[in-house]
Design goal:
5-stranded mixed sheet; 15 helices; 16 strands; elongated; hydrolase; RNaseH_sf; EC 2.7.7.7; nuclease; exonuclease
Length: about 475
């Protein structure tokens, strides 16, 4: 006997790892009722090409599934076998998510209690670092006829569970399983079905309060894990945002990759103005520093506002600040840290007697204010101090696209930019419209960081 209740150990082979875009190619199920064990295995025609990468791993080719039934033809039979059982799988969110989506496309409701053998292995064998199926097979000496075939992998899990019960006892294994099967701590007022539907894919999520007001917008490479972390169902990230108001609605948007998630997060924050987001809000006083020559030959930084000049077309700007106050503070820090003259930098008005600035008396100015340092020397030190703040010039003749591609399914999405301004996105499903292009600090920083260090599965295309 494995557990006191009817169980189904399930393994699926698929065209890829995205539960919305990809499809099932093989189903392997072991049904356990006390001492009675039934095995069920079937190839499935996914209705889309199997990527070469997946074929290499599983050995399942387009030719093998060409005459196999589509999921719709086996759905009723499979649903009848799974209904009312504890569903067990390795990384169960993957298999359960795929099954739910496949049934949902056919308007067949499916819900089951689930048990993840990855997490169960971590609880039962904490002394081991790795808990992948390959690691478990090697560690427990499990005999397997084929790897990465549905029924063979399900049988490996069956052998693992039998060995775990033999080593730890039925009561201990069931007690640990019960801990893992506890319902996620979704907030009051949120339908548990919403929690069930959260996908394990990259994307952006938003929380809403009683009156429909957006409370918070976030992003993650795993939406389900990140959203549940807010409610204590998963480990809470360090310095996570704490939301005091009741959350009444959760929405999310899937993306192909992390760059798109970061970009969409910025767009949503600006559109929704959520109460608990500070980063990403458009600044009404976005400004920078621009060097201006004085009649005396000295260069002085002046504050220029993005509302007055087009930052996307200037190549002589230093720093991005959300207010003039922030810009003045940065300039004062720059002055103090580099021995620059406060009078020459217009941080201090020159008195009628044209004496030394206050920094000179403290030994923090080399005397440009009283003629002890010439303009060329002071200008050179000023430009050197500002160099680390210089905004990067647009390095392309026109627009570019950051193209993200799912390495398995081949699905792609492109995000278009010109002179640091976001123009919109497009994918196989169509284009995402964007309003009039405007320069903003967060989009500039996101794209500039990508140009310095591109993300995996993303490339830059010059249009």
């Amino acid at each position: 006997m494995l557990f006191e209740r009817p169980c189904a150990i399930v393994d699926l082979e698929t065209t890829g790892g995205h539960i919305s875009r990809d499809r099932v190619t093989e189903v392997g199920v072991i049904l356990i009722d006390g001492e009675r064990v039934e095995r069920f295995d079937m190839l499935v025609n996914p209705g889309q090409p199997i990527p070469p990468f997946i074929e290499q791993i599983t050995g399942i080719s387009d030719a093998m599934v060409a005459d196999a039934p589509p999921f719709a033809d086996i759905a009723a039979q499979l649903l009848d076998k799974l209904r009312g059982r504890l569903l067990i799988a390795h990384n169960v969110r993957f298999d359960y998510g795929f099954l739910k989506n496949e049934f949902k496309r056919l308007n067949l409701p499916f819900r089951s209690e689930v048990l993840c053998t990855v997490k169960l292995s971590r609880l039962l064998y904490p002394q081991h670092f790795k808990h992948s199926l390959d690691s478990i097979i090697a560690r427990h000496g499990i005999v397997q006829t084929e790897r990465h075939r549905a029924l063979a992998d399900a049988d490996a899990l069956y052998q693992f569970l039998q060995q775990a019960i033999a080593e730890h006892g039925q009561q201990q294994v069931e007690a640990q399983a019960a801990l893992l099967m506890a319902e996620p701590a979704a907030p009051p007022g949120i339908d548990s079905e919403v929690v069930e539907q959260l996908p394990d894919v990259p994307g952006v999520y938003s929380f809403y309060g009683d009156d429909g007001q957006a409370l918070y917008v976030g992003r993650s490479d795993n939406l389900r894990r990140r959203v549940l972390a807010h409610f204590g169902a998963e480990p809470r990230p360090h310095k996570d945002v704490r939301i005091g108001q009741p959350i009444k609605r959760i929405e999310w948007q899937e993306t192909v990759g992390d760059f798109g998630a970061q970009l969409q997060e910025l767009q949503l924050i600006r559109a929704l103005q959520p109460l608990h987001n500070l980063r990403g809000r458009l600044s009404q006083e976005l400004c920078s520093l621009q060097l201006t020559p004085l009649d005396s030959g000295f260069l002085t930084p002046r504050i220029v506002l993005a509302s007055e000049v087009d930052f996307s077309r200037l190549d002589t700007l230093y720093g991005l600040f959300r207010s003039q106050k922030e810009a003045k503070k940065a300039l004062a820090d720059l002055c103090a840290g580099n021995g620059l003259c406060q009078t020459c930098l217009a941080l201090e008005k020159r008195g009628a007697r044209k004496g030394a600035c206050s920094a000179f008396a403290l030994g923090r100015c080399k005397g440009a204010c009283i003629g002890r340092e010439d303009a060329d020397s002071h200008n050179q030190r000023l430009q050197q101090a500002l160099s680390r703040l210089k905004l990067q010039s647009w390095p392309y003749p026109g627009a570019v696209a950051v193209r993200e591609t799912d390495p398995v399914s081949g699905q792609w999405q492109e995000h278009l930019f010109e002179r640091w301004c976001y123009l919109g996105s497009r994918s196989e499903e169509g284009a995402v419209p964007q309003g009039a292009p405007t320069f903003d600090a967060d989009t500039y920083k996101l794209l500039a960081a990508f140009l310095r260090k591109p993300l995996p599965d993303a490339e830059l295309r010059v249009l």
